[in-house]
UniProtKB/TrEMBL annotation:
InterPro entries: BPD_transp_1_N, MetI-like, MetI-like_sf. Belongs to the binding-protein-dependent transport system permease family. It is found in: Cell membrane. It is a multi-pass membrane protein. The chain crosses the membrane at residues 12-40, 113-135, 147-173, 199-217, 257-283, 303-326. It comes from Tardiphaga alba. It holds the Pfam family BPD_transp_1. The keyword Amino-acid biosynthesis does not apply. This is ABC transporter permease. Coiled coil: none annotated. Its main location: membrane.
Amino acid sequence: MSSTTINKGGRAGAVALALAGWVVKFVVVVLVIATFNFILVHAAPGDPAQVIAGQSGASDEKLLEQLRAEYGLDKPYPVQLANYLGRVLTLDLGYSYRQQRTVSSLIMERLPATLLLTATAFILALISGIFLGTLAGIRAGKWSDTLLTIVSLLLYATPVFWLGLMLVLLFAVELNWLPAFGYATIGVQLSAFERMLDIGKHMILPVTSLAAIYLAIYTRLMRSSVLDVTHQDFIKTAKAKGLKQGAIIMHHILRNAMLPIVTVAGMQAGALVGGAVVIETVFAWPGLGRLIYDALLQRDYPVLLGVFLVMSVIVIALNLLTDAIYRMIDPRVSVRAAS
C-alpha cells in the first residue's frame, strides 16, 4: 500500500472523527440549552391550566386537575423535564395548549418571515458597516470621517423600538410612502412579481430599524480595525513597492481588517434573531417574535420551549458558519488548530 493511500485514509479518518465529535458537541449543547430553557420557562409565574380553563369560561378545581393530567402538568418537574428532553431527541416539539396545533407546524409557518427579516437586516448592516467603516478609516480625521462617526454614534444610542416608531410616524403616517405594519397587503389579488414588491415595501421600515444599531457597531469596529491595519509594516512595504491605493485596500487592508468583524458578526447574528422579537411586535410582523410574545401572554409553555430551541439551534449553526468563514479568511487559524 502506497504512502499516498495511507495518508488519504488517515485524513478521511480524521475528518470522520472530527465530524463525530462535532455532532456529539452539538447534541450536548442543544440538550443543555433545552434544560435551561425548561427551567426558566417553568420558573415564570402563572398556571397554563388556569389559562386554558379561562378560555372555556370555567375554572373549578376539578377541571383544572383534569387539564393538568391531560397535558402532563401534574407530574413532578424532573419527570416533565425528562419527557421534554426525550421529545427533543426525537424532534417532537409538543402540542400548543392555546393554538390546538403542533408546535412544529406553528414554527414552520412563522420561521420564513423571521429569517427573511433578520437575514436581510444582517446582510444590510454587515455590508454597509464594512463599506462605511473602511471609508471612515481611510479618510480618518477628515469631515467625512467625523460625519460617519457622529451618525454611527447616534444610531448606536437610539433604542430600536423608538427608531421603528419614529420611522412609522414619518414615512407611513406623515409622508404616506410606505406601509406601517404587516408582512403584505391583505385582500388584494397580486401577481408573483407584484407580491414580491409588496413584501419588499413592507420590509423597508422593520429592516431599517433592526439593522441600524448593528450598522453602527460594524462601522465603528471596521474603522478602528482599518486604522490598526493601515499602520502595519506590510502595508508600508506594499506602498514602497508602488502598489496602487485601491489594490492595497482590496488585497491587504480589507482582508486583515475584516477578521474582527467576522468574529463580532457571528456573535451579533444570534442577538439579531433575539432582537427581532421587539421589531416584530412593533411592526406586527408575523414571525417567531410575535409567536413568542403571544405564547408568553398565554403561558403556552410548549410553544415557548419550541421557539427557544429553534432559535438556539440557529445561533449554534451561525457560530459554526462563522468559524468556517474565519478559517477561510485567515488560514493561520486552520494551521494552529491542526498543530
